[in-house]
Amino acid sequence: MILSFINQKGGIGKSTLSINVAAALAAQGHKTLLIDADKQGSTKTWASLRDDTPFVVVDLARENMARDAMKMAADYAFTIIDAPPHAVQVARSCIVASDMVILPVEPGGFSNWASDLTVQQVREAQDLKPHLRAAFVISRKLGNSVLGREMRHMMDEMGIPVLKTEIQSLIAFPESGTMAQTIFEYAPKSEAAKQIKQLTKEIVRFYEQDIRDEST
User: What is the pLDDT of residues 157-181, one digit of tens each?
Assistant: First the structure.
């Protein structure tokens, strides 16, 4: 499966989710590739600060990256693409390369508005690639806030499912990133690690269920 984390708004946790979901899959014994498609290179920089990584990290930040991404992915059980904000053409290539697109959104209007363009791109790609799956995940949520609950209702209206798992704004995430560690290395028993495990499990289950439904 090729999975992209995409939203045209920056700063909503795409790199954090990409790194830690890749780590969760690798910990399960899956051969995992993480593609950094963002010219800012947050994921590539994270990897460069380490002696080694639990998964392979490559830099592929260019507009016509889809074909190379799919070719690389053939050698891996899972490929995660960390897509860039504010880069429509690169995001389109990431979507074209993917089997599933996850749109992180944070409570508040800005990430919701930015996701409108990504939803449009997903719809266009589905016309050519009917098996392409998509879902929202609420990210950087502040506890049990009213905004978080309202965001779920707003996303439902877009016709794309919202994953049950929500990723809270927990200090362990930026701390682990600063230390160039995965959340499982930095705080393996933390609530943050638990949420990433739940998210990874739900993403895989969601995709596999859709494939089973399609085959029947």
Answer: 677 888 999 999 999 999 999 999 9
Q: What is the end-to-end Cα distance of the chain in Å, rounded?
A: 20
Q: Which of 170, 166, 164 is nearest to 192 (CA)?
A: 170
User: Which tokens sit at 146?
Assistant: 């009213």
Query: What's the helix, strand, coil split of the chain in %, to 5?
Result: 50, 15, 35
Q: How many CB atoms within 10 Å of residue 156? A: 12
Q: How confident is the model at residue 52 (pLDDT cuts 50, 70, 90)?
A: very high
- Token pair 């600063």 is found at 178
DSSP 56-108: EEEE--STT-HHHHHHHHTT-SEEEEEPPSS-HHHHHHHHHH-SEEEEEE-SS
Q: Are strands 133-138 and 78-82 parallel, antiparallel or unpaired?
A: unpaired
pTM of the predicted protein model: 0.90
- Residue in 102, 146, 118, 138 with CA at minimum distance from that of residue 1: 102
Residue 134 phi/psi, 5° resolution?
-150, 150
